[in-house]
Specification:
The protein is α/β, with parallel strands linked by helices. It has helices spanning 14-25, 40-44, 47-64, 75-85, 92-100, 159-164, 179-191, 210-223, 313-331, 370-375, 390-395, 428-436, 441-444, 457-465, and strands spanning 2-10, 30-34, 104-107, 109-114, 117-122, 125-137, 141-143, 171-175, 194-199, 226-229, 233-239, 242-247, 252-255, 257-260, 264-266, 300-302, 354-357, 362-367, 380-386, 402-408, 414-421. The chain has three domains: 2-39 and 91-142 and 265-348, 3-Layer(bba) Sandwich (FAD/NAD(P)-binding domain); 159-262, FAD/NAD(P)-binding domain (3-Layer(bba) Sandwich); 361-465, Enolase-like, domain 1 (2-Layer Sandwich), CATH 3.30.390. Helix 1 packs parallel to helix 9 (313-331), helix 3 runs antiparallel to helix 4 and helix 3 (47-64) crosses helix 7. It is globular.
């Protein structure tokens, strides 16, 4: 069997869905190929289920932070609510949406076989697909695990098992102190596990501003998470007592389940990229329109985690919209708007990427850290203040938080901003707009924050800067 479309998108997660939808909107016929559930990692094993696990316990802890309020939760109800956000790990509604948007959904594992050509292994046998104009790879990423002795032979959780578990283990060991490790360690501790977090890094979230790492680490410890930082795992094994995580100093961490959260790598090992001269398993280097570099003919595109640019759902969807629009415009011979901030240029990937770490305290940041700006040799000013405004005092008794602002000395525009504290996620979009818009701090001074809200911290940052 063989079929031909204007565009074939490989990977039906949130990123692939957006690329396909934009190409259809541009007048293209599109096949969207997915080997698992349409909606991908974010919908079923990452963003949505993990935040559903986190939200209830955060809300209860937030309520308890106000004098005179009592609140509690049932872990079983938390898991049931989480299940509802994944539609019970069924993708009927996602398929209905895609077909309603004019996208042809193809079930199976796709591999490139040459320029604009793919073979899809479907339940009905091989299907040959060809693309008149473009193939878009949006296959995401997979867990990257360390070569720890015994780990490969020891059943353990990745983020998938952790976000889809139907019971809370009495004891959970977590290897890794990045975003996934910290979020899920705290979530399970609050759900009733005795959690131990192990990391070779000397601090958690070590790529963020130091004050963010400090406050999150304190939050984990306050919740009762046992931290073993700055240490290696020597070996792992399981016996009748549970999973043994043996540390370099001889400590034997015993748990019922082990979550390995040591990063992810692009899922390009089994998509046939070698047939067009690329290295399987490697990151796909793209330009700002999503064109894969090193492949002749301007037909192969990529977006999302496979590009290594910004492994975040929202940023991948942004790049996917750019790709879908660029593919359609080029196919129709329309002008290519690839200048910085043009419709066919994912310029924001370079310095305006927002992210929220849904721990308690939350971390919300956009742009570059002080360390990144210093390493780039950019002259800059730094403002760091406590989040101590009327809005935060009303929000929680004893509210503790920090804000860090990095300003380009020459242009007096924001390079980055970080907020740490309870419920700071909604503050970061203002920073994103300021960075994308190159808004000078002198103009930002006239953006008056509402009183009494936590967003009044913007006024305090600017005052501390000298305005």
């Amino acid at each position: 069997m063989s079929e031909t479309y204007d565009v074939v998108v490989v990977g039906g997660g949130a990123v692939g869905e957006n690329a396909a939808a934009r190409a259809v909107r541009g007048g293209m016929t599109v096949a969207l190929v997915e080997a698992e559930l349409l909606g991908g990692e974010c919908s079923y094993w990452a963003c949505m289920p993990s935040k559903a696990l986190i939200r209830t316990t955060q809300a209860v802890h937030a309520a308890r932070a106000i004098a005179g309020v009592t609140a509690d939760f049932d872990p079983a109800d938390v898991l049931a609510r989480r299940n509802s956000f994944t539609s019970g790990w069924k993708d009927d509604s996602q398929v209905e949406w895609a077909e309603g948007a004019g996208i042809t959904v193809v079930r199976g594992h796709a591999r490139l076989t040459g320029p604009r050509a793919l073979t899809v292994e479907t339940s009905d046998g091989p299907l040959e697909l060809s693309a008149r104009h473009a193939v878009v790879l949006a296959t995401g990423s997979v867990p990257s695990e360390p070569p720890t002795p015994g780990l490969a032979d020891t059943p353990h959780w990745s983020s998938r098992e952790a976000t889809s578990a139907q019971a809370v283990p009495a004891r959970l060991a977590v290897i890794g102190s990045g975003v996934v490790g910290c979020e899920l360690a705290q979530a399970y501790q609050r759900l009733g596990s005795a959690v131990t977090l192990v990391s070779r890094g000397t601090t958690v979230l070590d790529n963020l501003e130091p004050v963010a790492s400090e406050l999150v680490e304190a939050g984990l410890a306050q919740d009762g998470v046992t931290l073993h930082l700055g240490t290696d795992v020597e070996r792992v094994h399981r016996d009748d007592a549970g999973v043994h995580v043996v540390l370099a100093d001889g400590t034997d961490v015993l748990a019922d389940e082990l979550l390995v959260a040591t990063g992810r790598r692009p899922a390009t090992a089994d998509v046939g990229v070698q047939t067009v001269g690329l290295e399987p398993g490697a990151t796909l280097e793209v330009d700002d329109s999503g064109l894969v570099q090193g492949v002749a003919g301007r037909w192969l595109y990529a977006c999302g985690d496979v590009t290594g640019r910004a492994p975040l759902t929202h940023q991948g969807k942004y790049a996917a919209r750019v790709v879908g629009d660029a593919v359609a415009a080029r196919a129709k011979g329309e002008p290519e708007l690839t200048a910085p901030w043009g419709a066919h240029s994912a310029t924001a990937d370079h310095g305006a990427v927002p992210q929220v770490v849904f721990t308690d305290p939350e971390v919300a940041f956009v742009g570059r850290t002080v360390r990144q700006v210093s390493d780039a040799g950019i002259a800059h000013d730094v403002v760091e203040i406590d989040i101590a405004v009327a809005g935060s005092a009303l929000h929680a008794d004893g509210y503790t938080g920090k804000a860090v602002m990095v300003v380009d000395t020459a242009s007096r525009t924001l390079l980055g901003v970080t907020f740490v504290g309870q419920d700071v996620a909604e503050l970061v979009h203002a920073g994103t707009i300021a960075i994308v818009g190159d808004v000078p701090v002198d103009r930002l001074w006239h953006a008056v924050p509402a009183y009494p809200t936590i967003s009044e911290v913007w006024l305090r940052l600017l005052e501390a800067y000298g305005l």
